[in-house]
Amino acid sequence: MMDFLIQVVFEVNINQRLKQMVYLKTDEEVELLRAANLLVGQTLAELAKIIQPGVTTRQLDAIAETFIRDHGAVPTFKGFPNPNGDAFPASICASVNHQVVHGIPNDTPLQEGDIVSIDCGTQLNGYCGDSCYTFAVGAISPEVQMLLTTTKEALYKGIEQAIVGHRLGDISYAVQSHCEAQGYGVVREFVGHGIGKEMHEDPQVPNYGRRGNGMLLKNGLCIAIEPMITMGTKEIYMQQDHWGIITRDKKPAAHFEHSVCVRKGQADILSSFEEIEKVLSEKSL
Ligand code: MG
Ligand code: MG
Q1: Which band of pLDDT confidence, cut at 50, 70 and 90, is reported for residue 1?
Q2: How many A from CA of 19 to the centre of ligand 2?
Q3: Beta strands of the chain (E only): which ranges?
Q4: pLDDT greater than 60 at residue 119
Q5: Ligand in closest contact with the CA of 121
Q6: Is the pLDDT assigned to residue 83 strictly greater than 90?
Q7: Phi, psi torsion values for 77, nearest 5 degrees
Q8: Could you tell me which of 91, 140, 80, 108 has the C-alpha nearest to residue 280?
Q9: Burial status of residue 177 (CB atoms within 10 A of its CB: 0-12, 13-18, 19 or more)
Q10: Ligand 2 centre from 110 Cα, in Å?
Q11: How far does residue 128's CA lie from ligand 2's centre (Å)?
Q12: What own/partner pairs with CB < 8 Å and gap ≥ 24 does 239-243 have?
């Protein structure tokens, strides 16, 4: 799940926020964050095993919730409030095709050629995990595959910039420039965020920005970087359930997210796609 940087949709202006409270994490805290984030990766890998045509996102949600609770953690998304005060009803966000983010799991079976982004959060021993992966359902078109590939590449381009001495805008620019070079849209209204005891801490981490701008990145800063990238327009609508966000032109969107810790020379990626991608490569054999 991502922070609500919402001027248009919720009429909350980022400039009205009070002074930022940025907590740099100790090494012990980073390990707690890693444990929570690795559990998210394991949960997404469980879902990867069963994502196929005919499966519903409600089924995926039930499996995720059970898996998270069986591992002694709490699904952070369940009950999480939006700015209207509505509680999110599920343990994952499952956003299909032109849904960008915050899709509420439902009973519509996934179909061959769909894409579904599964965003998942855990709280384990008081610290939060948050990570997202966009999955192909069966065979997808080369155009949609390129969207997924580019969005994931953009995430890692951003992570490359998450090092001591760089600035937040370096991350934002890296994500934006990589995606816009392909002609894709970069969603503005939703952003990455600091992560720690709270799922959403300062600073906000936009997927667009200028190199050399923004907060100086310090050792121990833990942030979720999460490009939300559209095949067509970057303009979005909110669905009537007050959660789901869709592209205005109904073209597909992709979303990948890692939680990372800023370090000297190279960021420490706290979440992991390793188990997910092991499952996916075994499925494709
Ligand atoms: Mg997330
Ligand atoms: Mg997030």
Answers
A1: low
A2: 21
A3: 3-4, 74-75, 92-96, 99-101, 115-124, 127-136, 185-186, 190-194, 201-205, 222-225, 228-230, 236-238, 245-247, 253-255, 258-261, 268-269
A4: yes
A5: 1
A6: no
A7: -70, -30
A8: 140
A9: middle
A10: 24
A11: 10
A12: 239/99, 241/104, 242/82, 242/84, 242/86, 243/82, 243/86, 243/88, 243/93, 243/102, 243/103, 243/104
Q: Which residues surround ligand 1, an ion (CB under 5 A)?
A: 1, 119, 130, 132, 257
Q: Which two tokens stand for residue 175?
A: 């994500």
Please give the average per-residue pLDDT across 201-217, as a whole number: 97
Q: Which two tokens stand for residue 47?
A: 């879902």
pLDDT range class, residue 18, cuts 50, 70, 90: low
The closest of 196, 193, 155, 219 to 14, measured between CA atoms, is 193
Residue 13 pLDDT greater than 70, yes or no:
no
CA–centroid distance, residue 118 to ligand 1 (Å):
8
Distance 103 CA to ligand 1 centre (A): 12
Ligand nearest to the CA of 93: 1
CA distance 151 to 75: 25
- Residue 90, beta-bridge partner list: none
Which ligand number lies closest to the CA of residue 101?
1
* 192 Cα–ligand 1 center, Å: 8
- pLDDT (mean) for 157-184: 98
Distance in angstroms (rounded) separating the CA atoms of residues 183 and 230 = 9
Question: Is the per-residue pLDDT at 10 higher than 70?
Answer: no
Q: DSSP per residue over 51-96, as a string?
A: -STT-BHHHHHHHHHHHHHHTT-EETTTT-B-TT-PBP-SSEEEEE
- Gap between the Cα atoms of 143 and 90, Å rounded: 30
Ligand 2 centroid to residue 152 C-alpha, Å: 15
Q: Is the pLDDT assigned to residue 236 strictly greater than 80?
A: yes
